[in-house]
Protein backbone atom coordinates (compact mmCIF):
# COMPACT_ATOMS: atom_id res chain seq x y z
CA UNK A 1 0.00 0.00 0.00
CA UNK A 2 2.85 2.35 0.67
CA UNK A 3 4.88 1.86 -2.48
CA UNK A 4 4.18 3.97 -5.50
CA UNK A 5 3.93 1.35 -8.18
CA UNK A 6 5.03 3.13 -11.23
CA UNK A 7 6.87 6.23 -12.21
CA UNK A 8 4.75 8.33 -14.50
CA UNK A 9 6.23 9.05 -17.90
CA UNK A 10 6.28 12.68 -19.05
CA UNK A 11 2.82 13.78 -19.89
CA UNK A 12 2.53 15.78 -23.09
CA UNK A 13 -1.20 16.47 -23.13
CA UNK A 14 -1.66 17.87 -19.66
CA UNK A 15 -4.18 15.14 -18.94
CA UNK A 16 -4.01 13.84 -15.41
CA UNK A 17 -2.44 10.48 -14.69
CA UNK A 18 -3.25 7.79 -12.22
CA UNK A 19 -0.96 6.18 -9.65
CA UNK A 20 -2.27 3.06 -8.02
CA UNK A 21 -1.62 1.37 -4.67
CA UNK A 22 -2.95 -2.15 -4.15
CA UNK A 23 -5.28 -2.63 -1.19
CA UNK A 24 -7.21 -5.82 -1.66
CA UNK A 25 -6.62 -8.86 -3.91
CA UNK A 26 -9.26 -10.24 -6.26
CA UNK A 27 -11.14 -13.35 -5.11
CA UNK A 28 -12.00 -15.19 -8.32
CA UNK A 29 -14.44 -18.09 -7.88
CA UNK A 30 -15.55 -16.74 -4.51
CA UNK A 31 -18.73 -18.25 -3.01
CA UNK A 32 -21.94 -16.34 -3.71
CA UNK A 33 -22.12 -14.73 -0.30
CA UNK A 34 -18.74 -13.05 -0.74
CA UNK A 35 -19.80 -11.03 -3.76
CA UNK A 36 -23.60 -10.79 -3.80
CA UNK A 37 -25.91 -7.82 -3.98
CA UNK A 38 -28.66 -8.39 -1.43
CA UNK A 39 -31.95 -6.48 -1.52
CA UNK A 40 -33.73 -5.90 1.77
CA UNK A 41 -37.49 -6.29 1.71
CA UNK A 42 -39.39 -4.80 4.63
CA UNK A 43 -42.52 -6.93 4.16
CA UNK A 44 -45.00 -4.50 5.70
CA UNK A 45 -44.12 -1.91 3.07
CA UNK A 46 -43.16 -3.78 -0.09
CA UNK A 47 -46.42 -4.81 -1.76
CA UNK A 48 -49.89 -5.47 -0.38
CA UNK A 49 -51.89 -8.17 -2.16
CA UNK A 50 -55.10 -8.27 -0.11
CA UNK A 51 -55.88 -4.60 0.30
CA UNK A 52 -55.49 -4.34 4.08
CA UNK A 53 -52.84 -1.66 3.62
CA UNK A 54 -50.01 -3.85 4.94
CA UNK A 55 -47.60 -5.58 2.61
CA UNK A 56 -47.63 -9.39 2.65
CA UNK A 57 -45.95 -12.52 1.32
CA UNK A 58 -48.18 -12.95 -1.76
CA UNK A 59 -47.41 -9.30 -2.54
CA UNK A 60 -43.70 -10.07 -2.41
CA UNK A 61 -44.09 -13.17 -4.58
CA UNK A 62 -45.95 -11.14 -7.19
CA UNK A 63 -43.20 -8.53 -7.33
CA UNK A 64 -40.10 -10.76 -7.33
CA UNK A 65 -39.72 -10.06 -11.05
CA UNK A 66 -38.76 -6.51 -10.11
CA UNK A 67 -35.74 -7.80 -8.23
CA UNK A 68 -34.69 -9.96 -11.16
CA UNK A 69 -35.03 -7.01 -13.57
CA UNK A 70 -33.03 -4.88 -11.17
CA UNK A 71 -30.27 -7.48 -11.12
CA UNK A 72 -29.79 -8.40 -7.47
CA UNK A 73 -28.64 -11.85 -6.31
CA UNK A 74 -30.49 -12.31 -3.06
CA UNK A 75 -33.32 -11.00 -0.91
CA UNK A 76 -33.31 -10.46 2.84
CA UNK A 77 -36.78 -10.33 4.36
CA UNK A 78 -37.37 -8.49 7.62
CA UNK A 79 -39.59 -10.51 10.02
CA UNK A 80 -42.94 -11.96 8.94
CA UNK A 81 -43.48 -14.20 12.00
CA UNK A 82 -46.52 -14.23 14.24
CA UNK A 83 -46.25 -11.03 16.20
CA UNK A 84 -48.35 -8.29 17.78
CA UNK A 85 -46.32 -5.93 15.53
CA UNK A 86 -45.29 -3.65 18.35
CA UNK A 87 -41.89 -3.21 16.69
CA UNK A 88 -42.74 -3.98 13.08
CA UNK A 89 -42.47 -7.73 13.70
CA UNK A 90 -39.13 -7.60 15.57
CA UNK A 91 -41.27 -8.78 18.49
CA UNK A 92 -41.83 -12.43 17.66
CA UNK A 93 -44.59 -14.41 19.34
CA UNK A 94 -44.00 -17.63 17.39
CA UNK A 95 -40.78 -18.26 15.48
CA UNK A 96 -42.32 -21.04 13.41
CA UNK A 97 -45.52 -19.33 12.27
CA UNK A 98 -46.34 -16.59 9.79
CA UNK A 99 -48.34 -13.66 11.08
CA UNK A 100 -51.80 -13.67 9.46
CA UNK A 101 -51.19 -10.10 8.28
CA UNK A 102 -48.42 -11.50 6.03
CA UNK A 103 -50.12 -14.76 5.00
CA UNK A 104 -49.50 -18.42 5.75
CA UNK A 105 -46.66 -20.93 5.70
CA UNK A 106 -47.94 -22.01 2.27
CA UNK A 107 -47.54 -18.41 1.12
CA UNK A 108 -43.99 -18.49 2.48
CA UNK A 109 -43.18 -21.71 0.65
CA UNK A 110 -44.66 -20.31 -2.56
CA UNK A 111 -42.57 -17.15 -2.21
CA UNK A 112 -39.40 -19.14 -1.53
CA UNK A 113 -40.05 -21.52 -4.41
CA UNK A 114 -40.68 -18.67 -6.81
CA UNK A 115 -37.57 -16.80 -5.67
CA UNK A 116 -35.42 -19.88 -6.12
CA UNK A 117 -36.87 -20.57 -9.54
CA UNK A 118 -35.90 -17.01 -10.49
CA UNK A 119 -32.36 -17.58 -9.24
CA UNK A 120 -32.72 -15.42 -6.13
CA UNK A 121 -31.42 -16.57 -2.74
CA UNK A 122 -33.56 -15.80 0.29
CA UNK A 123 -32.27 -14.73 3.70
CA UNK A 124 -34.71 -14.38 6.57
CA UNK A 125 -34.49 -12.44 9.81
CA UNK A 126 -33.84 -14.22 13.09
CA UNK A 127 -34.57 -12.33 16.31
CA UNK A 128 -32.81 -14.18 19.15
CA UNK A 129 -32.17 -11.38 21.65
CA UNK A 130 -35.78 -11.04 22.74
CA UNK A 131 -39.24 -12.39 22.09
CA UNK A 132 -42.60 -10.68 22.11
CA UNK A 133 -44.41 -10.50 25.44
CA UNK A 134 -47.04 -12.58 23.64
CA UNK A 135 -44.63 -15.49 23.15
CA UNK A 136 -45.86 -18.61 24.99
CA UNK A 137 -42.63 -18.69 27.01
CA UNK A 138 -43.12 -15.20 28.35
CA UNK A 139 -46.75 -15.80 29.26
CA UNK A 140 -45.66 -18.91 31.08
CA UNK A 141 -42.90 -16.95 32.82
CA UNK A 142 -45.30 -14.28 34.06
CA UNK A 143 -47.67 -16.91 35.40
CA UNK A 144 -44.84 -18.81 37.12
CA UNK A 145 -43.14 -18.05 40.41
CA UNK A 146 -39.86 -16.19 40.83
CA UNK A 147 -36.97 -18.59 40.51
CA UNK A 148 -38.99 -21.06 38.40
CA UNK A 149 -37.57 -22.64 35.23
CA UNK A 150 -40.12 -20.69 33.16
CA UNK A 151 -38.72 -17.39 34.46
CA UNK A 152 -35.20 -18.69 33.86
CA UNK A 153 -35.61 -18.32 30.09
CA UNK A 154 -35.73 -14.54 30.50
CA UNK A 155 -33.84 -12.07 32.65
CA UNK A 156 -36.02 -11.63 35.74
CA UNK A 157 -34.46 -9.98 38.80
CA UNK A 158 -35.72 -8.62 42.11
CA UNK A 159 -35.71 -4.84 42.27
CA UNK A 160 -33.36 -2.70 44.31
CA UNK A 161 -34.52 -0.50 47.20
CA UNK A 162 -36.33 -1.39 50.43
CA UNK A 163 -39.33 -2.93 48.69
CA UNK A 164 -37.78 -3.73 45.34
CA UNK A 165 -39.24 -0.54 43.94
CA UNK A 166 -36.11 0.37 41.97
CA UNK A 167 -35.00 -1.39 38.77
CA UNK A 168 -32.20 -3.97 39.19
CA UNK A 169 -29.68 -1.73 37.40
CA UNK A 170 -29.50 1.60 35.61
CA UNK A 171 -29.68 0.41 32.01
CA UNK A 172 -31.80 2.34 29.54
CA UNK A 173 -33.89 0.87 26.78
CA UNK A 174 -32.59 1.63 23.28
CA UNK A 175 -36.05 2.97 22.52
CA UNK A 176 -35.97 5.29 25.56
CA UNK A 177 -36.94 4.90 29.23
CA UNK A 178 -35.68 2.22 31.59
CA UNK A 179 -34.63 -1.22 30.30
CA UNK A 180 -36.65 -2.89 33.07
CA UNK A 181 -40.36 -3.38 33.66
CA UNK A 182 -41.81 -4.55 36.94
CA UNK A 183 -44.21 -7.47 36.95
CA UNK A 184 -47.28 -7.96 39.07
CA UNK A 185 -47.62 -11.21 40.96
CA UNK A 186 -50.79 -13.28 40.59
CA UNK A 187 -52.03 -11.91 43.94
CA UNK A 188 -51.75 -8.33 42.66
CA UNK A 189 -48.62 -7.30 44.54
CA UNK A 190 -45.62 -5.83 42.66
CA UNK A 191 -43.10 -8.53 41.82
CA UNK A 192 -39.80 -9.00 39.99
CA UNK A 193 -38.51 -6.94 37.12
CA UNK A 194 -37.59 -8.19 33.65
CA UNK A 195 -34.98 -6.84 31.26
CA UNK A 196 -35.80 -5.46 27.82
CA UNK A 197 -33.11 -3.69 25.84
CA UNK A 198 -35.88 -2.59 23.49
CA UNK A 199 -39.61 -2.10 24.11
CA UNK A 200 -41.27 -3.25 27.31
CA UNK A 201 -43.10 -5.75 25.10
CA UNK A 202 -39.76 -7.25 23.90
CA UNK A 203 -38.38 -9.16 26.93
CA UNK A 204 -34.72 -10.25 26.58
CA UNK A 205 -34.02 -13.96 26.62
CA UNK A 206 -31.41 -15.37 28.98
CA UNK A 207 -28.70 -16.89 26.78
CA UNK A 208 -27.15 -18.44 29.84
CA UNK A 209 -29.98 -20.97 29.68
CA UNK A 210 -29.36 -24.13 27.61
CA UNK A 211 -33.07 -24.36 26.77
CA UNK A 212 -32.80 -21.08 24.89
CA UNK A 213 -29.87 -22.47 22.87
CA UNK A 214 -31.76 -25.63 22.04
CA UNK A 215 -34.86 -23.74 20.98
CA UNK A 216 -32.99 -21.49 18.55
CA UNK A 217 -31.10 -24.39 17.02
CA UNK A 218 -34.45 -26.00 16.42
CA UNK A 219 -35.80 -22.76 14.90
CA UNK A 220 -32.77 -22.58 12.59
CA UNK A 221 -33.43 -26.12 11.43
CA UNK A 222 -37.11 -25.43 10.91
CA UNK A 223 -36.34 -22.75 8.33
CA UNK A 224 -33.26 -24.45 6.88
CA UNK A 225 -35.43 -27.50 6.23
CA UNK A 226 -37.85 -25.27 4.34
CA UNK A 227 -34.95 -24.17 2.15
CA UNK A 228 -33.90 -20.68 3.25
CA UNK A 229 -30.40 -19.60 2.24
CA UNK A 230 -29.54 -17.91 5.48
CA UNK A 231 -30.36 -15.69 8.41
CA UNK A 232 -29.78 -12.06 9.20
CA UNK A 233 -29.25 -12.17 12.95
CA UNK A 234 -30.92 -9.29 14.77
CA UNK A 235 -28.92 -7.55 17.52
CA UNK A 236 -26.22 -10.19 17.13
CA UNK A 237 -23.96 -8.35 19.59
CA UNK A 238 -26.55 -8.27 22.37
CA UNK A 239 -27.47 -11.83 23.32
CA UNK A 240 -25.01 -12.26 26.17
CA UNK A 241 -24.87 -9.69 28.96
CA UNK A 242 -21.95 -9.12 31.33
CA UNK A 243 -21.98 -11.25 34.46
CA UNK A 244 -23.87 -9.57 37.29
CA UNK A 245 -25.53 -7.02 34.97
CA UNK A 246 -23.39 -4.14 36.27
CA UNK A 247 -24.59 -0.54 36.12
CA UNK A 248 -23.38 1.37 33.10
CA UNK A 249 -23.37 5.10 32.55
CA UNK A 250 -22.82 5.03 28.79
CA UNK A 251 -25.59 5.78 26.35
CA UNK A 252 -27.58 2.71 25.42
CA UNK A 253 -28.51 3.16 21.83
CA UNK A 254 -28.10 1.28 18.61
CA UNK A 255 -25.36 3.49 17.31
CA UNK A 256 -23.82 5.43 20.18
CA UNK A 257 -24.18 2.47 22.53
CA UNK A 258 -21.32 0.86 20.73
CA UNK A 259 -19.14 3.94 20.48
CA UNK A 260 -17.31 3.10 23.67
CA UNK A 261 -15.08 0.37 22.13
CA UNK A 262 -17.81 -2.17 22.76
CA UNK A 263 -17.26 -2.31 26.49
CA UNK A 264 -20.88 -1.69 27.52
CA UNK A 265 -22.13 -4.64 29.58
CA UNK A 266 -25.04 -5.38 27.23
CA UNK A 267 -23.12 -5.55 23.97
CA UNK A 268 -20.30 -7.42 22.28
CA UNK A 269 -19.57 -9.81 25.14
CA UNK A 270 -17.18 -12.68 24.47
CA UNK A 271 -19.91 -15.26 25.04
CA UNK A 272 -21.82 -14.42 21.86
CA UNK A 273 -19.14 -15.98 19.68
CA UNK A 274 -19.65 -19.50 20.95
CA UNK A 275 -23.33 -19.23 19.96
CA UNK A 276 -22.42 -18.38 16.38
CA UNK A 277 -19.83 -21.15 16.20
CA UNK A 278 -22.56 -23.59 17.16
CA UNK A 279 -24.97 -22.16 14.62
CA UNK A 280 -22.30 -22.29 11.93
CA UNK A 281 -21.88 -25.99 12.57
CA UNK A 282 -25.64 -26.43 12.15
CA UNK A 283 -25.67 -24.53 8.85
CA UNK A 284 -22.67 -26.45 7.57
CA UNK A 285 -24.60 -29.71 7.82
CA UNK A 286 -27.01 -28.42 5.14
CA UNK A 287 -26.36 -28.59 1.40
CA UNK A 288 -25.75 -25.37 -0.49
CA UNK A 289 -24.05 -22.41 1.06
CA UNK A 290 -26.36 -21.16 3.81
CA UNK A 291 -25.22 -18.07 5.61
CA UNK A 292 -25.37 -16.05 8.83
CA UNK A 293 -25.25 -12.26 8.72
CA UNK A 294 -24.58 -10.26 11.87
CA UNK A 295 -26.47 -7.11 12.68
CA UNK A 296 -24.00 -5.79 15.23
CA UNK A 297 -23.87 -2.04 15.75
CA UNK A 298 -20.25 -1.95 16.80
CA UNK A 299 -18.05 0.92 15.80
CA UNK A 300 -14.63 -0.68 15.88
CA UNK A 301 -14.12 -2.63 12.66
CA UNK A 302 -11.70 -5.15 14.21
CA UNK A 303 -14.41 -5.99 16.79
CA UNK A 304 -16.97 -6.55 14.03
CA UNK A 305 -14.48 -8.75 12.20
CA UNK A 306 -14.52 -11.14 15.16
CA UNK A 307 -18.10 -12.10 14.20
CA UNK A 308 -16.94 -13.27 10.78
CA UNK A 309 -13.95 -15.39 11.70
CA UNK A 310 -14.02 -18.51 9.59
CA UNK A 311 -15.91 -20.70 12.06
CA UNK A 312 -18.52 -18.04 12.90
CA UNK A 313 -20.79 -15.95 10.72
CA UNK A 314 -20.32 -15.27 7.02
CA UNK A 315 -21.03 -11.56 6.92
CA UNK A 316 -21.55 -8.62 9.26
CA UNK A 317 -23.13 -5.33 8.31
CA UNK A 318 -20.55 -2.62 7.89
CA UNK A 319 -22.27 0.21 9.72
CA UNK A 320 -19.00 2.13 9.93
CA UNK A 321 -19.34 2.80 6.20
CA UNK A 322 -23.00 3.83 6.63
CA UNK A 323 -22.18 6.28 9.41
CA UNK A 324 -19.24 7.94 7.62
CA UNK A 325 -20.02 11.56 6.72
CA UNK A 326 -19.87 12.84 3.15
CA UNK A 327 -16.15 13.58 3.11
CA UNK A 328 -13.68 12.20 0.59
CA UNK A 329 -10.86 11.48 3.03
CA UNK A 330 -13.11 9.84 5.57
CA UNK A 331 -15.00 7.74 3.03
CA UNK A 332 -11.80 6.55 1.38
CA UNK A 333 -10.38 5.68 4.77
CA UNK A 334 -13.56 3.85 5.70
CA UNK A 335 -13.30 1.73 2.54
CA UNK A 336 -9.64 0.92 3.19
CA UNK A 337 -10.18 0.17 6.88
CA UNK A 338 -13.20 -2.01 6.10
CA UNK A 339 -11.26 -4.12 3.63
CA UNK A 340 -8.27 -4.38 5.94
CA UNK A 341 -10.44 -5.54 8.85
CA UNK A 342 -12.34 -8.17 6.89
CA UNK A 343 -9.31 -9.34 4.90
CA UNK A 344 -7.54 -9.95 8.21
CA UNK A 345 -10.07 -12.69 9.00
CA UNK A 346 -10.68 -13.87 5.44
CA UNK A 347 -14.27 -12.59 5.35
CA UNK A 348 -15.98 -10.51 2.69
CA UNK A 349 -16.65 -6.86 3.44
CA UNK A 350 -20.24 -5.70 3.30
CA UNK A 351 -21.40 -2.25 2.27
CA UNK A 352 -24.71 -0.69 3.20
CA UNK A 353 -26.09 2.84 2.97
CA UNK A 354 -29.74 2.45 3.99
CA UNK A 355 -31.98 0.07 5.90
CA UNK A 356 -35.24 0.07 7.87
CA UNK A 357 -33.57 1.55 10.97
CA UNK A 358 -31.89 4.65 9.56
CA UNK A 359 -32.87 7.80 7.71
CA UNK A 360 -32.57 7.05 3.98
CA UNK A 361 -29.27 8.13 2.48
CA UNK A 362 -31.10 10.38 0.01
CA UNK A 363 -32.09 12.45 3.07
CA UNK A 364 -28.96 12.07 5.21
CA UNK A 365 -26.78 13.35 2.39
CA UNK A 366 -28.99 16.40 1.87
CA UNK A 367 -28.52 17.70 5.42
CA UNK A 368 -26.18 20.56 6.32
CA UNK A 369 -24.09 18.03 8.18
CA UNK A 370 -24.02 15.73 5.18
CA UNK A 371 -24.10 12.08 6.07
CA UNK A 372 -24.92 12.60 9.75
CA UNK A 373 -27.38 10.18 11.28
CA UNK A 374 -30.38 11.81 12.96
CA UNK A 375 -32.91 9.55 14.68
CA UNK A 376 -35.60 10.23 12.16
CA UNK A 377 -36.56 13.59 10.67
CA UNK A 378 -39.81 15.31 11.60
CA UNK A 379 -41.54 18.37 10.16
CA UNK A 380 -40.07 20.56 12.91
CA UNK A 381 -36.50 19.52 12.19
CA UNK A 382 -34.01 20.54 9.52
CA UNK A 383 -35.46 19.44 6.20
CA UNK A 384 -32.97 17.88 3.81
CA UNK A 385 -32.22 19.45 0.44
CA UNK A 386 -33.85 16.66 -1.54
CA UNK A 387 -32.20 17.47 -4.86
CA UNK A 388 -28.71 17.62 -3.39
CA UNK A 389 -29.46 14.55 -1.26
CA UNK A 390 -30.53 12.52 -4.26
CA UNK A 391 -27.54 13.64 -6.30
CA UNK A 392 -25.16 12.57 -3.55
CA UNK A 393 -27.10 9.39 -2.82
CA UNK A 394 -26.75 8.30 -6.44
CA UNK A 395 -23.03 9.12 -6.27
CA UNK A 396 -22.62 7.22 -2.99
CA UNK A 397 -24.44 4.17 -4.34
CA UNK A 398 -22.41 4.11 -7.53
CA UNK A 399 -19.24 4.28 -5.44
CA UNK A 400 -20.51 1.46 -3.22
CA UNK A 401 -21.49 -0.80 -6.09
CA UNK A 402 -17.99 -0.59 -7.57
CA UNK A 403 -16.43 -2.03 -4.43
CA UNK A 404 -15.54 -5.68 -3.99
CA UNK A 405 -17.54 -7.60 -1.41
CA UNK A 406 -21.25 -7.70 -0.64
CA UNK A 407 -23.60 -4.77 -1.13
CA UNK A 408 -26.93 -4.42 0.63
CA UNK A 409 -29.72 -2.35 -0.89
CA UNK A 410 -32.83 -1.28 0.99
CA UNK A 411 -36.16 -1.39 -0.81
CA UNK A 412 -36.99 1.87 -2.51
CA UNK A 413 -33.46 3.17 -2.77
CA UNK A 414 -33.46 1.97 -6.38
CA UNK A 415 -36.25 4.50 -6.89
CA UNK A 416 -34.30 7.28 -5.20
CA UNK A 417 -37.07 7.40 -2.60
CA UNK A 418 -36.88 10.31 -0.19
CA UNK A 419 -37.37 9.90 3.54
CA UNK A 420 -40.88 10.96 4.61
CA UNK A 421 -39.79 13.95 6.69
CA UNK A 422 -43.20 15.56 7.27
CA UNK A 423 -45.21 12.58 8.46
CA UNK A 424 -48.06 13.64 10.78
CA UNK A 425 -47.34 12.56 14.35
CA UNK A 426 -50.71 10.73 14.55
CA UNK A 427 -49.49 8.36 11.85
CA UNK A 428 -46.30 7.34 13.65
CA UNK A 429 -45.85 3.74 14.79
CA UNK A 430 -42.22 3.37 15.89
CA UNK A 431 -41.95 2.48 19.60
CA UNK A 432 -38.92 4.78 19.80
CA UNK A 433 -41.24 7.75 19.11
CA UNK A 434 -43.60 6.76 21.92
CA UNK A 435 -40.99 5.74 24.48
CA UNK A 436 -39.04 8.97 24.08
CA UNK A 437 -42.18 11.09 24.23
CA UNK A 438 -41.47 12.32 20.71
CA UNK A 439 -37.88 13.36 21.45
CA UNK A 440 -36.82 10.81 18.83
CA UNK A 441 -38.79 11.04 15.62
CA UNK A 442 -38.07 7.40 14.95
CA UNK A 443 -37.84 5.18 11.92
CA UNK A 444 -41.26 5.46 10.29
CA UNK A 445 -39.98 7.89 7.66
CA UNK A 446 -37.86 5.22 5.96
CA UNK A 447 -40.56 2.54 6.17
CA UNK A 448 -43.25 4.10 4.00
CA UNK A 449 -44.88 1.69 1.49
CA UNK A 450 -43.30 1.64 -1.96
CA UNK A 451 -44.72 3.46 -4.99
CA UNK A 452 -45.01 1.09 -7.95
CA UNK A 453 -47.41 2.98 -10.22
CA UNK A 454 -47.66 6.75 -10.19
CA UNK A 455 -51.36 6.93 -10.99
CA UNK A 456 -52.72 3.96 -9.05
CA UNK A 457 -54.29 3.97 -5.57
CA UNK A 458 -51.54 4.10 -2.92
CA UNK A 459 -49.21 4.42 -5.93
CA UNK A 460 -49.74 0.75 -6.66
CA UNK A 461 -48.78 -0.47 -3.19
CA UNK A 462 -52.24 -1.78 -2.38
CA UNK A 463 -55.28 -2.52 -4.56
CA UNK A 464 -57.52 -0.79 -2.00
CA UNK A 465 -55.40 2.35 -1.84
CA UNK A 466 -54.73 1.77 1.85
CA UNK A 467 -51.27 2.20 3.27
CA UNK A 468 -50.30 1.57 6.91
CA UNK A 469 -48.07 4.64 6.84
CA UNK A 470 -49.01 7.61 4.66
CA UNK A 471 -47.08 8.11 1.43
CA UNK A 472 -45.89 11.68 0.75
CA UNK A 473 -47.05 13.36 -2.46
CA UNK A 474 -43.50 13.25 -3.83
CA UNK A 475 -43.72 9.46 -4.12
CA UNK A 476 -45.67 9.74 -7.40
CA UNK A 477 -42.66 10.95 -9.33
CA UNK A 478 -40.50 8.20 -7.80
CA UNK A 479 -42.89 5.41 -8.77
CA UNK A 480 -41.31 2.51 -10.61
CA UNK A 481 -43.46 2.98 -13.72
CA UNK A 482 -42.41 6.63 -13.91
CA UNK A 483 -38.75 5.59 -14.05
CA UNK A 484 -38.63 2.35 -15.97
CA UNK A 485 -37.04 2.91 -19.38
CA UNK A 486 -36.36 6.57 -18.56
CA UNK A 487 -32.72 7.33 -19.31
CA UNK A 488 -30.97 8.82 -16.32
CA UNK A 489 -33.64 7.78 -13.81
CA UNK A 490 -32.41 6.41 -10.51
CA UNK A 491 -33.99 3.05 -11.28
CA UNK A 492 -32.15 2.80 -14.61
CA UNK A 493 -28.91 3.90 -12.95
CA UNK A 494 -29.19 1.08 -10.39
CA UNK A 495 -30.12 -1.41 -13.10
CA UNK A 496 -27.16 -0.46 -15.28
CA UNK A 497 -24.78 -0.43 -12.34
CA UNK A 498 -25.91 -3.87 -11.20
CA UNK A 499 -25.64 -5.20 -14.74
CA UNK A 500 -22.10 -3.90 -15.13
CA UNK A 501 -21.16 -5.05 -11.66
CA UNK A 502 -22.20 -8.58 -12.57
CA UNK A 503 -20.63 -8.46 -16.04
CA UNK A 504 -17.29 -7.18 -14.72
CA UNK A 505 -17.46 -9.42 -11.62
CA UNK A 506 -16.78 -6.40 -9.43
CA UNK A 507 -17.94 -8.23 -6.31
CA UNK A 508 -14.97 -10.57 -6.65
CA UNK A 509 -12.65 -7.85 -7.85
CA UNK A 510 -9.48 -6.35 -6.49
CA UNK A 511 -9.22 -2.88 -5.04
CA UNK A 512 -6.51 -0.34 -5.59
CA UNK A 513 -6.34 3.12 -4.15
CA UNK A 514 -5.62 5.65 -6.89
CA UNK A 515 -3.97 9.05 -6.83
CA UNK A 516 -5.15 11.24 -9.65
CA UNK A 517 -2.62 13.87 -10.65
CA UNK A 518 -3.92 17.36 -10.15
CA UNK A 519 -6.73 16.39 -7.77
CA UNK A 520 -6.34 16.74 -4.01
CA UNK A 521 -7.33 13.71 -1.89
CA UNK A 522 -9.99 15.84 -0.20
CA UNK A 523 -11.66 16.51 -3.55
CA UNK A 524 -12.18 13.00 -4.82
CA UNK A 525 -12.25 9.35 -3.90
CA UNK A 526 -10.59 7.45 -6.73
CA UNK A 527 -10.42 3.68 -6.54
CA UNK A 528 -9.84 0.91 -9.03
CA UNK A 529 -11.50 -2.48 -9.16
CA UNK A 530 -9.77 -4.59 -11.79
CA UNK A 531 -9.61 -2.30 -14.82
CA UNK A 532 -12.52 -0.17 -13.72
CA UNK A 533 -11.75 3.15 -12.10
CA UNK A 534 -14.46 4.66 -9.93
CA UNK A 535 -14.21 8.36 -9.16
CA UNK A 536 -16.43 10.36 -6.83
CA UNK A 537 -16.02 14.13 -6.86
CA UNK A 538 -16.73 15.98 -3.64
CA UNK A 539 -16.02 19.52 -4.79
CA UNK A 540 -15.60 22.34 -4.66
CA UNK A 541 -14.28 21.98 -8.23
CA UNK A 542 -15.03 19.39 -10.87
CA UNK A 543 -12.49 16.61 -11.33
CA UNK A 544 -10.71 16.50 -14.67
CA UNK A 545 -10.88 12.95 -16.04
CA UNK A 546 -7.87 11.34 -17.71
CA UNK A 547 -7.86 11.98 -21.46
CA UNK A 548 -9.41 9.36 -23.69
CA UNK A 549 -11.02 7.44 -20.87
CA UNK A 550 -14.16 5.56 -21.60
CA UNK A 551 -17.04 6.51 -19.28
CA UNK A 552 -19.17 3.43 -18.66
CA UNK A 553 -21.64 4.97 -16.26
CA UNK A 554 -22.09 8.13 -14.24
CA UNK A 555 -24.48 9.18 -11.50
CA UNK A 556 -24.97 12.62 -13.10
CA UNK A 557 -24.13 14.53 -16.27
CA UNK A 558 -20.52 15.17 -17.10
CA UNK A 559 -19.30 18.45 -18.58
CA UNK A 560 -16.47 19.31 -20.96
CA UNK A 561 -14.03 22.17 -20.53
CA UNK A 562 -12.68 24.49 -23.23
CA UNK A 563 -9.77 22.08 -23.87
CA UNK A 564 -12.23 19.28 -24.51
CA UNK A 565 -11.42 17.49 -21.25
CA UNK A 566 -14.18 15.62 -19.47
CA UNK A 567 -15.21 17.07 -16.12
CA UNK A 568 -16.84 15.18 -13.28
CA UNK A 569 -18.96 17.67 -11.30
CA UNK A 570 -19.05 17.68 -7.49
CA UNK A 571 -21.28 15.07 -5.82
CA UNK A 572 -21.05 12.81 -8.85
CA UNK A 573 -19.52 9.37 -9.40
CA UNK A 574 -18.27 7.91 -12.67
CA UNK A 575 -17.14 4.44 -13.64
CA UNK A 576 -14.45 4.74 -16.29
CA UNK A 577 -12.02 2.59 -18.20
CA UNK A 578 -8.97 4.77 -18.60
CA UNK A 579 -7.00 4.69 -21.84
CA UNK A 580 -4.19 2.19 -21.29
CA UNK A 581 -1.45 4.78 -21.58
CA UNK A 582 -2.63 6.61 -18.47
CA UNK A 583 -2.59 3.62 -16.28
CA UNK A 584 0.54 2.18 -14.80
CA UNK A 585 0.24 -1.54 -14.26
CA UNK A 586 -0.13 -2.41 -10.63
CA UNK A 587 2.55 -4.87 -9.60
CA UNK A 588 1.85 -7.33 -6.86
CA UNK A 589 -1.72 -6.17 -6.47
CA UNK A 590 -3.12 -9.62 -6.93
CA UNK A 591 -0.93 -11.05 -4.19
C1 LIG B 1 -32.79 -4.50 15.15
C2 LIG B 1 -33.81 -4.21 14.08
C3 LIG B 1 -34.70 -3.11 14.55
C4 LIG B 1 -35.39 -3.56 15.79
C5 LIG B 1 -34.39 -3.99 16.86
C6 LIG B 1 -35.05 -4.77 17.95
O1 LIG B 1 -31.92 -3.49 15.30
O2 LIG B 1 -33.15 -3.90 12.89
O3 LIG B 1 -35.61 -2.75 13.57
O4 LIG B 1 -36.18 -2.55 16.30
O5 LIG B 1 -33.41 -4.83 16.34
O6 LIG B 1 -35.40 -6.03 17.48
MG1 LIG C 1 -51.86 -7.14 3.01
TrEMBL record:
InterPro entries the UniProt entry points to: GH, GH13_cat_dom, O16G_dom_2
A Pfam family matched in the record: Alpha-amylase
Bilayer-crossing regions: none
Domain (Glycosyl hydrolase family 13 catalytic) ranges: 40-447
Record SUPFAM superfamilies: (Trans)glycosidases (SSF51445)
Keyword line: Hydrolase
Molecular-function annotations in GO: hydrolase activity
Family of the protein in this entry: Belongs to the glycosyl hydrolase 13 family.
The protein's name in its UniProt record: Glycoside hydrolase family 13 protein
Organism, as annotated: Kineococcus glutinatus
